[in-house]
Design brief:
single chain, 2 strands
């Protein structure tokens, strides 16, 4: 029956429309979130464990290649990653200059390998953390807890340490509670994609 209808439309010059496929939808939404989270954690661990500038740069390059082949959205996301990489580098230097962190054997500045975590993190904003777009309260809590927790984990695995073990984490809770929702809002403005389902 359906074949005869389709043939009739074709016979009268009407083309049967093909199903619309979303660009860059190689994975389902759930798999996209999971893949983004897994890629981030693998790259984060590889960078933090090695504490090597050369290895960190190589990990970032590999991470970005896999990410943009598998999950990448559009040129807006490329610009987002570049912007956050620059902002993150500046923020790291500021935090070290302010004395929030120290690193054994360092010159007082943030090591390059540490700042290499920023482009890796930036790739999660439109994927692993996409469900938090527009949800300011959840994003604030996630930033305060997750962002600070990531730094604390890093200090236990590397030569980087808090100058003050009490006020350092407190400062990061405030910083990331404010910063993370702002970064998600920036991602939503720069990258075109559907709003997350409620």
């Amino acid at each position: 029956m359906s074949d005869s209808i389709a043939a009739g439309k074709a016979g009268h010059g009407g083309a049967v429309p093909e199903p619309v496929k979303s660009p860059n939808r190689r994975l389902s939404r759930v798999m996209e979130i999971a893949a983004s989270a897994v890629l981030f954690n693998i790259s984060w661990l590889a960078i933090v464990i090695n504490q090597s500038n050369a290895i960190a740069v190589a990990v970032v390059a590999a991470h970005l290649l896999v990410h943009f082949w598998l999950l990448g959205r559009d040129a807006g996301e490329v610009r987002l990653v570049l912007l956050l990489s620059a902002l993150g580098f500046g923020l790291d230097q500021l935090l070290f200059s302010a004395g929030l962190f120290t690193v054994a054997g360092g010159d007082g500045g943030a090591p390059l390998w540490l700042s290499c975590l920023w482009p890796v993190f930036a790739t999660t904003l439109c994927h692993a953390f996409h469900p938090l777009w527009g949800r300011i309260t959840l994003a604030t809590v996630a930033g305060a807890v997750g962002g600070t927790g990531s730094y604390i984990a890093g200090t236990r695995l590397t030569a980087v340490a808090f100058s003050d073990p009490l006020w350092g984490p407190v400062a990061l809770v405030i910083l990331w509670g404010l910063l993370f929702p702002a970064l998600l809002a920036l991602a939503a403005r720069m990258v075109k994609r559907d709003a997350p389902a409620l």
